[in-house]
From TrEMBL:
Signal peptide: none annotated. This is MFS transporter. SUPFAM superfamilies: MFS general substrate transporter. It comes from the Bacteria. Residues 21-411 form the Major facilitator superfamily (MFS) profile domain. The chain crosses the membrane at residues 21-45, 57-80, 92-109, 115-132, 152-175, 181-201, 232-253, 265-286, 298-316, 322-344, 356-379, 385-403. InterPro entries: MFS, MFS_dom, MFS_trans_sf. Keywords: Membrane, Transmembrane, Transmembrane helix. One of its GO terms (molecular function) is transmembrane transporter activity.
Length: 417
């Protein structure tokens, strides 16, 4: 009987592991599609507006509208997702709602009759992306226990890295020859990724769950109530600084390559492709390492890499040396993409997961608003892209200092919902 019991336990464990890997794949497929959109937004959209708008700070402001929308909408969408009662669960209904609208914006964007209208319409793509991304971000903690989340996020980042790499290699080639078709390709890849989650992940139905009763609170009362989650707020403060550093560089990196280093458009895209290749190779090992030795310890190492390499890039004149440094900084980028999110999830109670992830994400979206705009001012003021790397180094250093104040909670296994 003991042998049979052991055998059955082994079979059940194997079945759960296969189910877990399948869920990781489908969630990662959605991140593949969204990452292709992010790569498009990072590499091509700045070029699209740069060719039409002379002032770089205005371009930075357009790109930063995602941050402004995220500050307002992220916690609202998180609370809405946590409270959805539907046969499809709490997360997928909003994803289904937002998908046709973002596809429509991507396809219609290039046909706008004026630059002003383009600048007004493009933020709608960010808005509908947030409608999709916020509930998607809560699927991972819904499905995976705390001691598996960095590993699961590592798988997602491998898939996301593949989406980035696809765009930086293929998209860069296509964009240089036909901008019009690029919008269609990005829309198709984005839609395919989201549909994989919609049809591939089976959430627990919530339509029969009793509605959550909660006393209505004024905004100031709600903010005051967040003080009981001090570690989440400390994390958000640190996250703001390192995200501002990232978002101060990423939208301008291809322009730095073409205008600051004299590269072709295709070669400037390869800077990003190299970095993403490193991320693909290391995301899963980094996630597994962080689950073993501690998320905070590994995250700090990533920030140190960022500070050192950003300072060195200021003095680089050689294209081969720039590629070497970009390969090194990609290790830090990989760490920041994989590890801090797992750290955050372990700080949040399960019943407020999407809501408080949304609250913490305000810092990321604020950085999207602040980073590109301030970097654009620096470029205009100095007539060079190099000062933005000093700006990023300072931001990452501040992120390291404020991360020191976050007390990491030890992950303990729980049953997946």
């Amino acid at each position: 009987m003991d042998i049979i019991a052991c055998f059955m336990e082994a079979v059940m464990a194997s079945s759960q592991q296969q189910s877990s890997l399948k869920a990781m794949f489908f969630i990662g497929t959605a991140w593949f599609g969204m990452s292709a959109f992010f790569a498009f937004n990072t590499a091509s959209v700045p070029m699209f507006f740069n060719a039409r708008i002379e002032q770089k700070w205005i371009v930075g402001l357009i790109l930063g509208t995602m941050g402004g929308l995220g500050i307002i909408m992220s916690p609202i969408l998180g609370m809405a997702s946590d409270r959805i009662r539907h046969r499809l669960g709490r997360r997928r209904p909003l994803m289904i709602l937002g998908l046709p609208f973002i596809v429509a914006v991507l396809v219609a964007m290039q046909y706008m009759p004026s630059v002003a209208l383009m600048a007004l319409v493009w933020p709608l793509a960010y808005f509908f992306h947030l409608v999709i991304e916020r509930p998607w971000g809560a699927l991972m903690p819904d499905i995976f226990p705390p001691d598996k989340r960095a590993t699961a996020n590592g798988v997602c980042q491998v898939m996301g890295g593949a989406g980035n790499l696809l765009y930086f290699v293929v998209g860069g080639y296509v964009w240089a020859r036909n901008e019009e078709i690029t919008f269609y390709l990005v829309a198709a890849v984005y839609a395919a990724g989201i549909l994989a989650v919609v049809f591939g992940i089976k959430e627990k139905p919530t339509h029969l769950d009793p509605p959550r009763t909660q006393k209505r609170m004024k905004v100031l009362e709600y903010i005051a109530g967040l003080r009981e989650h001090r570690e989440v707020l400390r994390y958000a403060f640190a996250c703001f600084f390192w995200s501002t550093g990232l978002n101060g560089i990423l939208p301008w990196l291809t322009s730095f390559g073409t205008q600051g280093m004299g590269m072709s458009v295709e070669l400037s895209f390869m800077i990003l492709a190299l970095s993403v290749g490193v991320v693909i190779l290391l995301s899963l090992p980094v996630g597994m390492l962080a689950d073993r030795v501690g998320h905070k310890r590994v995250a700090r190492a990533g920030l140190v890499i960022f500070v050192v390499v950003n300072v060195l890039v200021v003095f680089v004149e050689s294209v081969p040396l720039l590629f070497i440094l970009m390969g090194i900084v990609a290790v830090g980028f990989c760490i920041i993409m994989v590890v801090p999110y797992a750290l955050l999830m372990n700080l949040i109670p399960e019943d407020r997961m999407a809501e408080l992830i949304g609250v913490a994400s305000i810092s990321v979206y604020l950085s999207i608003l602040v980073g590109p705009t301030l970097a654009g001012f620096l470029i205009d003021a100095f007539g060079s892209y190099r000062p933005i790397f000093v700006f990023a180094a300072v931001c990452h250093g501040l992120g390291f200092l404020f991360l020191q104040g976050v007390t990491e909670k030890k992950a303990t296994p729980i049953l997946a919902g």
